[in-house]
């Protein structure tokens, strides 16, 4: 099995590449991470006991995000930097909102929520309204970061861009990096047309006959 082969590599520091007969040596340090209780898997026969004790040399327990809210500001900054959004500023009211959420999805959910908020904010500063899943009514479950899919994010971003440029189709299309024809198709998908915005205007090119 894979576990037996892995244990052999750890103990002997030897391995063979797929399709080779030559035995190779490798010196390495092994770092393992899991969100499962491996002892439970050992008791259930799903994880080898000898492999467990071989890798269980210096365990480090990392609490879930909801148990270390003091780390949230640093994690938010790190996530934004990793997404090339280091220039984005998170206001104090947004940070309080993030701090009041329990984060059942941990860091992965935090990343999704921040990425969605940056998309919704466009060139502006994220505000509480850009975090719709984090301030639901009491008594109703708060939607997670997976509630919105990419199509919904795109639709909302287009609507906000149209409003931001006061219906100027040319500027809206340029800011979104799409052609005017693509803008028409996306508006049609949204169930809108060029006249749905009070000041929305397209200047169609004149084609000589």
Short note summarizing the structure:
44% of the residues lie in helices and 2% in strands.
What does this structure look like?
- Pfam families: AAA_lid_14 (PF25601), HTH_8 (PF02954), Sigma54_activat (PF00158).
- One of its GO terms (molecular function) is ATP binding.
- Residues 1-119 form the Sigma-54 factor interaction domain.
- Keywords: ATP-binding, Nucleotide-binding, Transcription, Transcription regulation.
- The chain is an all-alpha fold and 209 residues long.
- The longest helix is centred in the middle third of the chain and has 16 residues, at 106-121.
- Helix 6 runs parallel beside helix 7 and helix 7 packs across helix 8 (169-176).
- Helices cover 44% and strands 2% of the residues.
- The chain contains 9 helices and 2 strands.
- A two-stranded antiparallel ribbon has the order 1-2.
- It is elongated.
- It folds into 3 domains: 2-55, no CATH class; 65-134, Helicase, Ruva Protein, domain 3 (Orthogonal Bundle), CATH 1.10.8; 149-209, Orthogonal Bundle (Arc Repressor Mutant, subunit A), CATH 1.10.10.
């Amino acid at each position: 099995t894979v576990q037996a082969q892995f244990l052999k590599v750890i103990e002997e520091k030897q391995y063979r590449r797929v399709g080779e007969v030559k035995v190779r040596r490798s010196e390495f340090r092994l770092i393992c991470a899991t969100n499962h209780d491996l002892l439970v898997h050992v008791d259930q026969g799903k994880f080898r006991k000898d492999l467990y004790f071989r890798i269980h040399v210096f365990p480090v327990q990392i609490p879930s995000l909801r148990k270390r809210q003091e780390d949230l500001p640093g994690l938010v900054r790190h996530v934004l930097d990793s997404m090339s959004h280091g220039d984005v500023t998170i206001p104090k009211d947004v940070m309080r909102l993030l701090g009041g959420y329990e984060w059942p999805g941990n860091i992965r959910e935090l990343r999704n929520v921040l990425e969605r908020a940056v998309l919704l904010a466009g060139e502006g500063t994220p505000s509480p309204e850009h975090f719709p899943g984090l301030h639901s009514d009491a008594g109703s479950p708060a939607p997670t970061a997976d509630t919105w899919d990419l199509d919904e994010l795109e639709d909302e971003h287009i609507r906000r861009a149209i409003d931001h440029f006061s219906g100027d189709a040319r500027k809206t299309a340029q800011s979104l990096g799409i052609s005017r024809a693509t803008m028409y198709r996306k508006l049609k998908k949204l169930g809108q047309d060029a006249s749905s915005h009070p000041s929305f205007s397209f200047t169609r090119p004149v084609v000589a006959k």
